[in-house]
Amino acid sequence: MDPVYIARHPAAAWRRLEDEVIVISASDSSLFTLNEVAAEIWECADGRTPLAEIVAQHIVTRYDVGFDEAYSDARELVEQLAGKGILIVSGEPITGGDGR
């Protein structure tokens, strides 16, 4: 499995509201509501931690799901968020923006 790194796009504003995260894209003012699991992944998106590690440490340990299923779902989610321009996905650690 090739490493995947994720970082919040620096032009996206966000705030946690209870179990959800609300994200606003600065490029087109689109609003996104992330559920509890997606919010956990979003908050861990520092650009330095591989997605597999985020899933293993923050998703599999908290929810009744196996690693393979959780990782597959997480990959799909991050690709969707990257397609919306609010998340950056890379095969290398990400620096700059939220990925410092």
List keywords for this structure.
6 strands; 100 residues; single chain; three-stranded antiparallel β-sheet; alpha+beta
Give a summary of the structure in a few sentences.
The chain has 100 residues and is of the alpha+beta class.
Order of strands across the widest beta sheet?
5-1-6
What's the mean pLDDT score? Answer: 93
Number of DSSP-assigned strands = 6
Give the helix tally: 3
Major β-sheet annotation = 3 strands, antiparallel
Structural class: alpha+beta
Rg measurement, Å = 13 Å
- State the helicity in percent bands: 25-40%
**Shape field:** globular
Report how far apart the termini are. Answer: 25 Å
SSE run: EEEEHEHHE
pLDDT < 50 stretches? none
Oligomer: single chain
Sheet-strand content, in percent, reads 25-35%
What can you tell me about this protein's structure?
A three-stranded antiparallel beta sheet has the order 5-1-6. The protein has a three-stranded antiparallel beta sheet with strand order 2-3-4. Helix 1 crosses helix 2 and helix 2 crosses helix 3. It has a domain of 63 residues. The mean pLDDT is 93. The chain contains three helices and six strands; from the N terminus they run ββββαβααβ. The chain is α+β, with helices and mostly antiparallel strands. Strand 2 and strand 3 form a beta hairpin. The protein is globular, with a radius of gyration of 13 Å. The chain starts with a strand and ends in a 10-residue tail after the last strand.
